[in-house]
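Next up, sample data:
>
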Amino acid sequence: MLKEGTVAPDFTVKDANGETVRLKDLRGQKVVLYFYPKDDTPGCTKEACSFRDAFAEYKKQKIKVLGVSLDSEEKHKKFAAKYKLPFTLLADTDHAVSDAYGVYGQKKFMGRSYMGVNRMTFLIDEKGKIKKVFEKVKPEDHASEVLRAFEI
């Protein structure tokens, strides 16, 4: 598990539009890196829409929002269009980013075990260090909780 105060692992991954995104290129900016299990599912949609609804405030505070799941670029594009998501979705199809941040692992649902992404969020400061880690995320009000944490 990554700790607050450590350097955030760098990554290179494609976004929903097929553009390359590198964390190191975002140095000098505050970044919200939120991991979620799957596009267009109830909890993930609530979380994405909470970031969408608070996006004006994120933009005002110059905070970059990046959502990460194992979904493909095409699925991300459809998800973003369906819910009018104004922030970047990253296609971590090989779970390399999820592995680097320790969010990929065994999950259980209805008595079945499988591998997947655990819902977690990392706040990364302008120097590329992890400012805060949210291990327990309530999708509905997570965006406002994250904004408050940046103000601290």
Summary: The CA atoms of residues 16 and 77 lie 5 Å apart.
